[in-house]
Amino acid sequence: MKNHYRKLVLFDIDGTLISAGGAGTRSMNLAFHALFGIRDAFKDIPMAGRTDPQIMKEGLKFHSLPYMNGNVAKMEAMYLEFLEHEINNPLRHLKPGIKGALSLLNEMGMVIGLLTGNIEKGADIKLSAFGLRGYFLDGAFGSDDEDRDKLLPIALGKFAQKGFKFAPENCIIVGDTPKDVQCAKIHGAHCIAVATGPYSKESLLDTSADVVIDSLAETERYMNFIMSC
């Protein structure tokens, strides 16, 4: 594979690669109840596109609990304990075309990574349950910075340390929410938006995504874009 064709392709996880069958939300609710005695603490808190630390802080603030005294760290630890169990549920599933997409990108010499709001250990639990963790060399996570818009430079720095130096314009972020599009575009990266999460194709077409597809089963569409950008 010629180097000038090589790109860094960074994937979101929830709604893009997988559905965890509600495991993440259940684990956050269970962790909050275990620590603070409040059930369904996150039922009125939006999660799509946000980082885990942001969601946890929002939950604490919503229920008038302090978040600067170690409560977020306690939440993260308890959340991971529950997630290990909750990920094993019959509703979890891969999104369409995922294994084919990852295999094809790998064969074509693309460098594949993650850009996700999940804390890193949570991402490992989710991806390992589907046998996907080995596809991704590295990435940026909610545990690196709670602001999703700061994650692309973090990812680029990690890959540079591994000998893969990319400029933002050689990166493609694949995600299912407007926040995925935003975190790419503010740095001059490209974005493929997939309508496999909570946002419709029509709403994603209203963003500045370069390509909007129903799913990653549309192989020709997204590969033509990746090879041309």
Explain what the structure shows:
The chain has 229 residues and is of the alpha/beta class. The chain folds into 2 domains: 3-20 and 92-228, Rossmann fold; 23-86. Helix content is 41%, strand content 12%. It contains 9 helices and 8 strands. β4, α5 (120-129) and β5 form a beta-alpha-beta unit.
Please supply descriptive tags for the structure shown above.
single chain, 229 residues, alpha/beta, Rossmann fold, 2 domains, six-stranded parallel β-sheet, 9 helices, 41% helix
Topology:
Blueprint: E1 8-11, E2 18-19, H1 23-36, H2 52-62, H3 71-86, E3 93-94, H4 98-107, E4 111-115, H5 120-129, E5 139-140, H6 151-161, E6 171-175, H7 178-185, E7 190-194, H8 201-205, E8 211-213, H9 219-228
Parallel strand pairs: 1-4, 1-6, 4-5, 6-7, 7-8
Antiparallel strand pairs: 2-3
Helix pairs in contact: 1-3, 2-3, 3-5
